[in-house]
Amino acid sequence: MNDTRSERSRPTNDVRSERVELSVDGDDVGVRYLAGGDGPPLVLCHGIGLDAASVSWRHVLPSLADDYAVYAPDLPGHGESDKPRRTYTTDYYVNVLREFLSELGVGGAGLVGTSMGGAVTLGHALDGGDPARLVLVDSYGLGADAHWRGAMSAALRVPFADDLMLGTMGTRAGVRTHLSGLVDGTPADDLVEDVAGTVSSSTMRTLRSWQRHEFRPDGLRTNYLDRLGEVDVPTTLLHGRTDPLFPVSWSERAHERIRNSELEVVENCGHWLPRERPAAVERALS
Q1: Which CA distances in Å does 15 have to 18, 69, 174, 198?
Q2: Pairwise CA distance, residues 14 & 143, whole Å
Q3: Is the dihedral of CA 178, 182, 184, 188 positive or negative?
Q4: Is the pLDDT of residue 248 over 70?
Q5: Which DSSP state fits 229?
Q6: Buried b / exposed e along 42-79 (16+ C-beta atoms within 10 A)
Q7: What pLDDT score was predicted for residue 6?
Q8: How far apart are CA 160 and CA 137, in angstroms?
Q9: Spatial separation of the C-alpha atoms in residues 92 and 222, rounded to whole Å
Q10: How far apart (Å, rounded) are the C-alpha atoms in residues 198 and 275?
């Protein structure tokens, strides 16, 4: 089944915005989340920096709410959640997810994570969480290194790099250019608008903080590859064939190591699979 423009334009009238206060690593943080539907609980985790619940999950959440009680938090530093000045790490976000699930009383929820959010959901499962299932979409955390890591690690240490990054993302033209390097083909206008509405100096600070922690001179910090044999819940791996950030071989290898797993490689799709091919996510959960 191919995605169409009409599939990407589903209304979001039945999705509500809620807020919860969490205590994470000894600090209080306010988290906004989108919610909708009734049924088994399902939690959606977005990626880092340019993302938010209303970006990655805009067209997926309303459809999934037909069958699930769906919750999609803005992780701290993103969207309409608090953006404290702190060091942002994958481990911090794993702790945020744990506290979010506990506060909402949705233990045993299915977990869907894209990009960094995939590493967060996987980390939660490996930390003793009890997800009903995992869906890892173009997931971070499945490899030790990537071809761009060395150049990025060096660039993060250039003086005024943060100001330069924000400057290039300060216009819709700049956002469109950046997204052209992430998706397959021309970025959809609605994706450009959503990302442009999310970018701010605070979200860029969050992105840079996380990148500096994760992109080490000798490789990527978060790498669950050697622990994938511990995953004991049904797992679906979705990966865009032309993902320029994380190679499809990451998910192929993870599929071999996770005993109860399925793999779907999505053709003509880059790194933002929930926006480029939302029907693939819906199929995985049908």
Answers
A1: 10, 11, 30, 19
A2: 38
A3: negative
A4: yes
A5: G
A6: bbbbbbbbbbbbbbbbbbbbbbbbeebbbbbbbbbbbb
A7: 30
A8: 32
A9: 12
A10: 15
3-state secondary structure of 99: helix
* 206 contacts 78 by C-beta, under 8 angstroms: yes
The three-state secondary structure class of 9 is: helix
The one-letter amino acid code at 11 reads: P
How many Å apart are CA 21 and CA 34, to the nearest integer? 14
Instruction: Say which amino acid occupies 257.
Output: R
Question: Do residues 142 and 226 lie in contact, with contact meaning Cβ atoms separated by under 8 Å?
Answer: no
What is the CATH number assigned to the segment(s) 7-146+222-284? 3.40.50.1820
pLDDT digits (tens, 9 = 90+) for 184-223: 999 999 999 999 999 998 999 999 999 999 999 899 999 9
Question: What is the residue extent of each domain of the chain?
Answer: 7-146+222-284
CA torsion 278-4-182-269 (nearest 10°) is 80
Q: How far apart are CA 129 and CA 120, in angstroms?
A: 11
pTM, rounded to two decimals: 0.92
Helix ranges (DSSP H) in 52-160: 53-56, 61-64, 90-104, 116-126, 149-155
